[in-house]
Amino acid sequence: MKRDYAVIGLGRFGGSICQELNQEGMQVLAIDKDEDKINEFKNIASHAVMADSTDEATLRELGIKNIDHVIVAIGDNIQASILTTVVLTDLNIKKITVKAQNDYHEKILNRIGAHQVVHPERDMGKRIARNIISNNILDYLELSDDHSIVEVKVGERMRGKTLVDLDIRANYGCNVVAIKQEKDINVSPAADDVLEEGDILIIIGSDKDISRFEKNLVID
Ligand code: ATP
Fold first, then answer.
1. Minimal CA–CA distance to 206: which of 177, 173, 160?
2. Atom 30 (ligand 1): residue with closest C-alpha?
3. Arch. (CATH architecture) of 122-218
4. Three-state secondary structure call for residue 150
C-alpha cells in the first residue's frame, strides 16, 4: 500500500510531525523500535510498526521504497540516526529529512546524503531569542547561514511613514517582500503606502542588515 510519509522515531518531535500530518489527512507510516510508542500511535498514524530502522531488510519489507518522503526523528541515538539515513539513501528514497542533534551530526547527515537536515531546538531557540529582544519581532526564518526573512510589527518608529520615507533598501540593504494588514497581504507594496501601527512587514536580507534595521526601526 502506498503511503505519503514515513516518520521514524516517535519522540516529541517525530510524534508531533506524525500527528500533524495525520490531521492534514496524509497517509503516515510510523516506525519505532519501542512497543509502547507503537501502541500510543496506532490510532494516530495510518500504520504503526515496531521495527529497528537501521535494518535495511526490515525497511524494505515495510515497503519504504514506495514512500516519497521519510522523516528520521531519532534524537539521542546519533549512531542509529546516521545508520538509518545511510540505509534510506542506499534505497534511493526521494526525500529524506533528518533531525540533527548538534552541528557535528548535521555535517555528517549532509555528507551522507540527507536531503534536508533540521535542527528544531537550535532554530526554535533563535526564534524565541529574537522575540524576547522585542515583542515587535514576530517571526524569523533562516534562509542560509547569513540570510533570513523576518516578520516585524510596525511600531512607533515606522507608524505614519511610507516605504519611500523609510527607504529601507538604501538605508539598511533589506527588501520589504510584503505587508500584512489585518487579513490582507500585499505582496507588491507600493512606495507610497502609509504604514499603520500593527501592520506587519516581511523583510528579507542579510542577518547583519536585518539586525541594523531592527535596532533602528523595530525595537522600541
Ligand atoms: P524528542 O526530543 O523529539 O523527544 P529525542 O531526542 O528524545 O526526541 P529519542 O528519544 O532519542 O529522541 O528518539 C526518538 C524515538 O526514536 C524513540 O521513541 C526511540 O525509541 C526511537 N528510536 C531510536 N532508535 C531507533 C531505531 N534504531 N529504530 C527505530 N526507532 C528508534
1. 173
2. 32
3. 2-Layer Sandwich (3.30)
4. strand
pLDDT one-digit tens code per residue, 155-174: 999 999 999 999 999 999 99
Task: Kindly give the distance from the C-alpha atom of residue 117 to the centroid of ligand 1, in angstroms, as a whole number.
Answer: 16
Run of H or E including 159? none
User: Which ranges in the chain are annotated with CATH 3.40.50.720?
Assistant: 4-118
Residues in the chain: 220
**pLDDT tens-place string over residues 114-148:** 999 999 998 888 888 887 887 788 888 889 889 99
Rg (CA), the chain: 22
Looking only at the bridges linking them, the beta strands covering 69-72 and 95-99 are parallel
Centroid of ligand 1 to alpha carbon of 92 (angstroms): 23
Rounded to a whole number of angstroms, the distance between the first and last alpha carbons of the chain is: 56
For ligand 1, say whether the CB of 157 is within 6 Å of any of its atoms: no
| Range 4-118: architecture per CATH | 3-Layer(aba) Sandwich (3.40)
Ligand 1 closest atom vs CA 121:
2
